[in-house]
Specification:
By secondary structure, the protein is of the alpha/beta class. The protein has one domain: Alpha/Beta hydrolase fold, catalytic domain (Rossmann fold, 3-Layer(aba) Sandwich). It is 35% helix and 14% strand. The protein contains 8 helices and 7 strands. Strands 1-3-2-4-5-6-7 form a 7-stranded mixed beta sheet, sandwiched between helices. α1 (37-43) links the parallel β2 and β3. It comes from Micromonospora sediminicola. Keywords: Hydrolase. Belongs to the thioesterase family.
Length: 252
């Protein structure tokens, strides 16, 4: 997992010129790299987006899913190491936000240098623990939660064959997210900018504010009207925030 052009894990939809900062995008539970194609298109060519494809979905559906956030973070960190030759920021939504935090911790511990910026979206701070067991429900119960959050493409929800193919990854990701336990350790030193919806059943505004406790760097919080997938309705504002932060990042 050291190939700089590893198309298995990293999807680079719009390569950017040398010197452009990189934004790693980490999908939500059950999500795939293609979810961030519009983000890549919108930020190109000023920012190079690297969208991560987890095992167990789409063209990687024959591979076993990674069962824990900790193990997935280690694998993603290995994959990203060759891409750290220029400033590297991380955006993660829902499960991807927790994963992004752990990847940022590993990279900073490994290199002694922080990532350029961490953008958690739609997820409570790592230290805010909830007892959640959706991953233990039967298929109907799991799908009811997915539909409530509107986290899966409606075409997939209406297609039984696609749904059967997606369910194992959705369940595995839910299990990884719900069984995650924060381990105390050094705070990040990078800027952290959090995005959240004011009616998200998975994250309260106070739980989003608690991300400030996990960095010694600058902290900002953007609260939008909406539920767990508020970002679909507020993409222009989120993209403006990402662009402003990332284009201030220069190669040292």
């Amino acid at each position: 997992m050291t190939d700089h052009d590893n198309g298995l894990w990293v999807r680079r939809f719009h390569p950017a010129p040398a010197g452009a900062p990189r934004l790693v995008c980490l999908p939500h539970a059950g999500g795939s790299a293609s979810f961030f194609f519009p983000v890549s298109r919108a930020l190109s060519p000023a920012v190079e987006v690297l969208s991560v494809q987890y095992p167990g979905r789409q063209d990687r559906r024959q591979e076993p899913c990674v069962p824990t956030i900790g193990e997935l973070a280690r694998q993603v960190t290995d994959v990203l190491r060759p891409w750290t030759d220029r400033p590297l920021a991380i955006f993660g939504h829902s499960m991807g936000a927790t994963l992004g935090f752990e990847v940022a911790r590993l990279l900073e511990a490994e290199t002694g240098a922080p990532v350029a910026h961490l953008f958690p979206s739609g997820r409570r701070a790592p230290s805010c623990r909830r007892h959640e067991t959706v991953h233990l429900l039967d298929d109907e119960g799991l799908l009811a939660d997915v539909k409530k959050l509107s986290g899966t493409n409606s075409a997939i929800l209406g297609d039984p064959d696609m749904l059967r193919a997606a369910l194992p990854a959705i369940r595995s990701d839910y299990r990884a997210a719900e069984t995650y336990t924060y381990a105390d350790g050094p705070k990040l030193t990078c800027p952290v900018t959090v995005f959240t919806g004011d009616a998200d059943p998975k994250t309260t505004v106070d739980e989003a504010k608690a991300w400030a406790e996990h960095t010694t760097g600058p902290f900002d919080l953007h609260v939008f009207p909406g539920g767990h997938f508020f970002l679909a309705s507020h993409q222009p504002a989120i993209l403006r925030t990402l662009s402003a932060a990332l284009t201030r990042t220069t190669v040292g």
